[in-house]
Amino acid sequence: MRTNHLPAPERIESLYRTMAGALGPTGWWPADITFEIMVGAVLTQNTAWGNVDRSLAALKAAGALEPHALATMEPERLRNLIRPSGFYVNKSRTLQSLSRWYEERCGAAPEGAATIPDAELRAELLGLFGIGGETADDLMLYVFSRRTFVADTYARRLFAFLGFDVPAGYSAFHKAYSPAVLGTSLSVGDLQEFHGLIDEFGKAYRDEEAKGASFLAAHRTASLASRP
Questions:
Q1: Residues contacting residue 185 through CB under 8 Å, at least 6 positions apart
Q2: How far apart are CA 144 and CA 153, in angstroms?
Q3: Are residues 106 and 194 in the same domain?
Q4: Are 137 and 163 in a shared domain?
Q5: Is 0.70 surpassed by the pTM of this model?
Q6: Are residues 60 and 84 in the same domain?
Q7: In what residue span(s) does the HhH-GPD domain sit (predicted)?
Q8: How far apart are CA 157 and CA 161, in angstroms?
Q9: Closest CA relative to residue 148, chosen from 113, 186, 112, 120
Q10: DSSP class of residue 206?
Q11: CB of 99 within 8 A of CB of 67?
């Protein structure tokens, strides 16, 4: 039976150090306040960040970038404010569901979730309307400061380029790689930066040829050489 070729914790740490030296610091996630990260994590689903910026600017101008304001806003008004981000009907519903949960469960502060175990917190987030695995992990990492792996498209492309096996689907990819990521000594801050580095790398080196000529070429060679 074929053994899956996955990165070991030490390989992930080495990858992080190399990327941080070449591309860091990224300063990701960009936001003025924590709640802005929450809103941005929802709005960025299936759209470019420039569109998210326009929606966030509209919410700020309306004085609505605050949990209670979003939770109680008239849905049609909220849809109009976030229209630039697309899928505004579902996203408005998600924002209101998330805002109500954040108020009621956490007292509208990340510290309010401090006693909730990681697995339980992630399950609660996934139980909210419109919150999928990637958004839940964004929130876990950047809002609630939990060590987690954001198994997004850029991460998938990176690890596939490096010669590792990447399971299909977000959930399977996250489940397969999380033990190695959490087995590293990388802190929450490091993992936040790692996510930013992965995304910046993916934007800078878009195709396989560009990736192959990048500073990560040696990591790919080492990974392929270690395949069982």
A1: 13
A2: 22
A3: no
A4: no
A5: yes
A6: yes
A7: 43-204
A8: 6
A9: 186
A10: -
A11: yes
> Residue 225 — pLDDT band, cuts 50, 70, 90?
confident
Q: Are residues 52 and 122 in the same domain?
A: yes
Six token digits for residue 20: 């941080």
Tokens representing residue 174 in the block:
């996250």
Are 61 and 123 part of one and the same domain? Answer: yes
Q: For 13-58, what is each residue's pLDDT tens digit?
A: 999 999 999 999 998 888 999 999 999 999 999 999 999 999 999 9
Predicted confidence (pLDDT) per residue in 73-122, tens digit: 999 999 999 999 999 999 999 999 999 999 999 999 999 999 999 999 99
Distance set, CA 164 to CA 18, 113, 194 (Å): 17, 35, 18
Is the separation of the CB atoms in 78 and 96 below 8 Å?
A: yes
Give Cα 112 to chain centroid, integer Å.
21
- The position carrying tokens 């270690």 is 226
C-alpha 149/C-alpha 194 separation (Å) is: 9
Residue with tokens 């849809």: 79
